[in-house]
Write a structure and sequence with these properties.
It is a single chain. This protein is an alpha/beta fold. It has 2 domains: about 5-60 and about 385-430, Urease, subunit C, domain 1 (Roll), CATH 2.30.40.10; about 65-370, Metal-dependent hydrolases (TIM Barrel), CATH 3.20.20. Helix content is about 35%, strand content about 25%. It contains 15 helices and 20 strands. It has helices at about 70-75, 95-110, 115-130, 145-155, 185-200, 220-235, 245-255, 260-265, 285-295, 300-305, 315-320, 335-350, 355-370, 405-410, 435-455; strands at about 5-15, 20-35, 35-40, 50-60, 65-70, 135-140, 155-160, 165, 170, 180, 205-210, 210-215, 240, 275-280, 295-300, 320-325, 385-390, 415-420, 425-430, 430. Strand 14, helix 9 (about 285-295) and strand 15 (about 295-300) form a beta-alpha-beta unit.
């Protein structure tokens, strides 16, 4: 019922603080009508059509996942762990995108049927929702409409940025360097525009479609300038991988005599509409360009930690760069990503006080929401009603002296009690509404296993011995 008033009451509620960060407020009721927060009031509201109560928990804005690849999570599970240049079929950290991730993603599009791809994407959406993610900025391939359908079906707020290329990588040469092939960039851009024309619901919509130029080494200056102009014309967003490997940095320097961030600045792509992913090898001057342009950086530390590469949240945050959190390609656990961001920042700085719980929670909610239009990420009147409730009553979360610290340093997706997206309960008691989860898991697992067999036959993955079922 669109006019139904829902009262959401928890022991603590994460609200914007007067200092600009976030704080845990007690004795608060969040009133939701339709798909928006109608009011936030002190005390207990008695009259409401529906009540959601979490007496031992915390209500906070849904996590805004600022960089993700939904296909890759299930497809790469167990493949990118414990892998380095010296392992069978392994590749070095700087070559993993070109030698493994892109080739296997391309093969998935060739081998899997539309129904199989949709099954894999449903599994990814299940994982995202159950971990408390209500909004995700994802870079699918333009032909993978099944992802947009699955997100809409299950209630995830999706910011889709279909891949666009000028010179996609086609694996590695004999010296372990990326090989690039020229393609029709006009056709690649047209394919992304066709997705936008079909699915984009405009500002505040539950499905938005922007632009996803793949990276600074795979997109031409002409293409990036056109995308910058189209994003402004269509009032939408752009996201791109930036300085994620030394190979990328070296190739951009050789082609353009610039760093990847300087290259984006020259093409007009930096700005408040743009989210750059990773920035592992950005220089200090690049941080100034990102900060001064209002560009947001999506920080995904676990991706690189898996490959033995350190990238620190505190470096970006200290430089004043607007920094959000993404889970990238392997596991969509926002709690785990927050912990990794905090621990790596503390280790690299030698200061246990940096990247504290309120700072990380703001990065995961309000910073991400601001980067994607400002409709989500904060619990305030008028904002879209994307809320999650985390139960802090489990043994590993008790007792509670500081709910925000318990939330960041001890909680897991299993502690998520409910997820509300666009005013609708999409997860209740750990279960995604209207979804046969066992069937989704089984169908996706079968599809990915078939892909893995095909990848072994094509030489993309090393063969493994399998135990008969």
């Amino acid at each position: 019922m669109p006019d139904q008033l829902t009262a959401v009451v928890a022991r603590w509620t994460l609200l914007p603080s007067p200092s600009g960060g976030v704080e845990a407020a007690e004795d608060v009721t969040v009133l939701v009508r339709g798909n928006r927060v109608e009011d936030v009031v002190r005390g207990r509201v008695v009259e409401a059509d529906r009540r959601i109560e979490l007496p031992h928990g915390v209500v906070l804005p849904g996590f805004v996942n600022l960089h993700n690849h939904a296909l890759n999570g299930p497809v790469f599970r167990g493949i990118v762990d414990d892998v380095g240049a010296g392992t069978p079929g392994g590749v070095a950290a700087d070559a993993i995108v070109y030698g493994l991730l892109l080739p296997l993603g391309d093969l998935a599009s060739e081998v899997l049927t539309d129904d199989e791809l949709r099954a894999v994407y449903r599994l990814a959406v299940l994982e995202l929702l159950r971990s408390g993610t209500t909004s995700v900025l994802d870079m699918p391939r333009a032909q993978h409409h099944g992802f947009l359908d699955a997100a809409s079906e299950l209630g995830l707020r999706l910011f889709a940025a279909p891949y666009i290329f000028s010179t996609p990588s086609r694996g590695l040469d004999d010296r372990g360097r990326p090989r690039y092939d020229d393609i029709d960039e006009d056709a690649s851009l047209a394919a992304a525009l066709a997705v936008a024309d079909r699915y984009d619901e405009g500002p505040g919509g539950r499905t938005r479609v922007g632009f996803g130029p793949h990276a600074t080494d795979t997109c031409s200056p002409r293409l990036l300038r056109r995308i910058a102009a189209l994003a402004a014309e269509r009032d939408t967003f752009v996201t791109i991988h930036v300085a994620q490997s030394r190979n990328e940095v070296e190739r951009v320097r050789a082609r353009h005599g610039r760093t990847p961030v300087e290259y984006l600045h020259d093409t007009g792509l930096l700005g408040p509409r743009t989210v750059v992913a990773h920035g592992v090898y950005v220089e200090d001057g690049d941080l100034d360009l990102l900060r001064d342009s209002g560009t947001t950086l999506a920080h995904c530390p676990l991706t690189f930690a898996r490959s033995g590469v350190t990238v620190a949240f505190e470096r970006f945050h200290r430089a004043g760069v607007r920094t959000g959190i993404g889970t990238d390609a392997y596991r969509f656990d926002h709690f785990g990503e927050l912990r990794a961001a905090g621990l790596i920042a503390k280790l690299t700085s030698g200061d246990g006080a940096v990247a504290d719980a309120p700072t990380l929670l703001a990065a995961a909610t309000s910073t991400g929401g601001a980067a994607l239009g400002g409709h989500t990420g904060r619990i305030e009147p008028g904002r879209l009603a994307d809320l999650i409730g985390v139960d802090l009553s489990a043994p590993h979360l008790q007792p509670v002296r500081d709910p925000l610290r318990n939330l960041v340093w001890n909680a897991t997706p299993a502690d998520v009690a409910f997820v509300m997206a666009d005013g609708r309960m999409v997860v209740d008691g750990g279960t995604v509404a209207g979804c046969d989860e066992r069937r989704v898991v089984d169908e996706a697992a079968a599809a990915v296993d078939r892909l893995w067999h095909a990848a072994e036959a094509a030489g993309v993955l090393p063969p493994i011995e399998r135990t008969p079922a």
